[in-house]
Design a protein that fits this description.
transmembrane helix; membrane; elongated; ABC_2_transport; mainly alpha; Nod_factor_ABC_transporter; 84% helix
């Protein structure tokens, strides 16, 4: 009975902390920009800049660019976890949390669970913009749901890495800089914007080693052909491994810091 009460207490505390972090996101223009505006802006910009050069026209380019922008947006949204945690640690708010009758792990758990909704918002912004531009998933709506769930899960797994770094870093500015560079390298050195066969041979080797390439390729196959490939299994397995490794590390670092 006592264990059940403790679990319900932890769930309530985590829900409250998650709600707090979502409110902070919605009331912070920088965070809203990352989650909502950036996916829309990148979808419009890259579609009209590169559509004609790569695929002949914007409409033909959308099946290529939509999965790429989706993953880029989720990486950007996931990176916000690290800077938010770092800001809270250095602002002293966690010291205030320790004086409250709440579960010790609730602030961290609340941040990571709030990230799930942030990732879904970024996914809807990306796919919704593509739909308004004329993109239609040939695989059907069911495969859209499958892609969103898979990509959001991987984005949430990446949130643990960014959160771990956010706890260890000395400043939120450093977290944001490293997160931005990581997002740009992973997205631009992948097949997010250009098909593999249009890249130089040396670049293909680098792109092939990039894990984000597997996510985008798997997403394209599901959205455009309605097929669950081996790459999708690799992506799912990689996400599980990342959570298995970084969740305990993040909790350990959090307990030491707070």
């Amino acid at each position: 009975m006592e264990m059940r009460t403790h679990q319900s207490h932890l769930i309530m505390n985590t829900g409250t902390m998650a709600y707090r972090n979502l409110l902070k996101t919605m009331h912070n223009p920088d965070k809203v920009l990352d989650v909502v505006v950036q996916p829309i802006l990148f979808m419009l910009m890259f579609s009209f800049l590169f559509g004609s050069a790569i695929a002949g026209n914007v409409h033909a380019y959308l099946p290529i660019i939509v999965p790429g922008i989706l993953m880029q947006s989720l990486l950007s949204a996931a990176s916000g976890s690290g800077s938010q945690i770092n800001e809270d640690l250095h602002s002293g708010i966690y010291d205030r949390f320790k004086s409250l009758p709440i579960a010790h792990i609730a602030p961290l758990a609340g941040q990571l669970f709030a990230d799930i909704l942030r990732l879904f918002i970024a996914a809807v912004a990306s796919l919704g913009t593509g739909f308004l531009l004329g993109w239609r998933p040939a695989g059907g709506f069911g495969w859209v749901v499958a892609v969103v769930l898979l990509d959001v899960f991987l984005g949430w797994a990446m949130s643990w890495i960014f959160a771990f770094y956010g706890i260890l870093a000395k400043s939120a500015t450093m977290v944001e800089s490293v997160s931005l560079m990581t997002m740009l390298v992973l997205s631009f050195l992948s097949t997010a914007f250009v098909p593999m066969n249009q890249l130089p041979q040396a670049m293909q080797v680098i792109v092939h080693l990039n894990p984000v390439t597997y996510v985008i390729q798997a997403s394209r196959m599901m959205l455009n052909h309605g097929v669950w490939t081996n790459q999708a299994w690799i992506v799912l397995g990689a996400g599980i491994v990342v959570v298995f490794i970084f969740a305990p590390l993040t909790v350990w670092a959090y307990n030491r810091k707070s």
